[in-house]
Design brief:
Blueprint: H1 4-28, E1 32-41, E2 46-55, E3 58-63, E4 72-75, E5 80-83, E6 85-90, H2 98-103, E7 107-117, H3 121-130, E8 134-140, H4 160-169, E9 174-180, H5 190-204, E10 208-211, H6 219-223, E11 231-233, H7 252-259, E12 263-264, H8 276-284, H9 308-313, H10 322-328, H11 331-334, E13 354-367, E14 373-387, E15 390-391
Parallel strand pairs: 1-4, 1-5, 6-7, 7-8, 8-9, 9-10, 10-11, 11-12
Antiparallel strand pairs: 1-2, 2-3, 5-13, 13-14, 14-15
């Protein structure tokens, strides 16, 4: 027969075992745990070593040490764990293979920025519909889409009624209107093309994204047509008609546009959109981009674009910190398009879209669009992606 001390000791041990089993059972209800990474979530101002637990496709816990196991675990020690990246200027809608390619780069939401106009918008919408992650499209005001000879060199292609009809039929997937305004795209029609794009967008309460730089019209005149919520992409485009004047000061009209709620986006791209001296001059003014984007195409991995993490790394040498760069590819981007309203965060209850990145130190070569090179000492690399709570295969 046990004495009282033995009984209490045995009861305590049994209770502890039951508690441990209960804790393990609770922990096992998680589908995935990302362990030991440096969690950077600008949406909640978090930068700390944490575990991230996921259940039923949503963030279930972000804590210093989450007990127990899960059917799947990602060892993120020495890596960064951030909200899934949002790329607001891609051409992922050109190919059914593209969404999965950018997904492996950590991109869990994308916008196709004007690959097609009204005549063929169904092609990009079909890609968005079949995309594993959220995808939406901007309709090109040029009804034939991107053309080698220029989308709207013939002003008849900037067809307001055709664009309106296409949006009305595909409102769920068309998130805005794109106007490409460079001299080799719109020529002398740039101002009227933008006015028509704005006419279409305003009919549906949608934003306009403009492709700027090397325009015939002064940028100060063009930017005055932009309303709250519109986006200026390729903001680092060099003269003629950059966002800075000949003395390196931001144009007053550009400052006014930001004050009224116009967004300014990087739009890395491959041709004519970024030059290091222009970037340096703009960054010195403190007029930093609101968002990073790639202007991604199928050959981006073979160019100076490479991927969104690479593009995010290019401004470290100009004073941007790691958390500031991450904000511009997550929470900031989520504010622009309603489809991303609940993305760009690792807050408990949010959809479990996560990017695991490596921040490597060393000497890394970065290219602008004019084959000029700079050397940076930090670069982000994609390591793993979680979409809707499930690890994305990297094979």
């Amino acid at each position: 027969m046990w004495n009282r001390r033995q009984f209490l000791s045995a009861a305590a041990a049994a209770s502890a075992a039951l508690f441990t089993r209960g804790a393990r059972t609770f922990a096992a209800s998680y589908d995935l745990i990302i362990r030991g990474g440096r969690v950077i979530d600008p949406s909640v101002r978090l930068d700390a070593i944490r575990d991230v637990a996921i259940s039923a496709g949503r963030i279930a816990a972000v804590e210093a040490a989450i007990p127990g196991d899960a059917p799947d675990t990602i060892d993120a020690r020495g890596k960064l764990v951030v909200p899934g990246l949002l790329d607001i200027h891609t051409h992922a809608g050109r190919s059914t293979a593209a969404p999965e390619l950018v997904l492996k780069d950590g991109v869990t939401g994308w916008i196709d920025a004007g690959s097609q106009g009204a005549d063929h918008i169904g092609e990009t919408i079909a890609v968005a519909q079949s995309s594993p992650q959220q995808g939406r499209v901007l309709i090109n005001i040029g009804r034939a889409g991107i053309l080698p000879e220029g989308d709207t060199m013939d002003l008849k292609r900037a067809d307001v009624e055709a664009a309106r009809d296409a949006i009305a039929k595909n409102r769920e997937f068309i998130a805005g209107v794109k106007a490409r305004l460079s001299r080799d795209v719109a020529g002398e029609n740039d101002y009227e093309v933008l006015r028509r794009a704005q006419e279409v967008a305003s009919s549906f309460g949608l934003p306009v994204m403009i492709h700027m730089g090397q325009t015939i019209s002064p940028f100060a005149r063009l930017v005055d047509l932009l309303k709250r919520g519109d986006i200026v992409t390729h903001m680092f485009a060099p003269p003629p008609n950059s966002i800075i004047d000949d003395t390196g000061h931001i144009l007053p009209e550009v400052l006014a546009a930001r004050r009224r709620g116009v967004w300014f986006d990087v739009g890395n791209g491959q041709t004519g959109h970024m030059r290091w001296d222009t970037i340096a001059a703009i960054m010195r003014t403190g007029f930093w981009p609101d968002t990073f984007s790639t202007d991604w195409t199928a050959n981006s991995h073979e160019t100076g674009v490479i991927d969104l993490p690479n593009c995010m790394s290019k401004l470290f040498g100009y004073g941007m910190t790691l958390d500031e760069a991450i904000a511009r590819a997550t929470v900031n981007a989520a504010r622009i398009f309603p489809v991303f309203n609940d993305r760009g965060t690792l807050n408990v209850g949010a959809p479990a879209d996560v990017a695991v990145l490596e921040l490597r130190k060393g000497n890394f070569e970065f290219l602008d669009n004019f084959k000029n090179k700079i050397t940076g000492h930090q670069r982000l690399f994609p390591s793993a992606t979680v979409l809707a709570g499930k690890r994305v295969p990297r094979v």
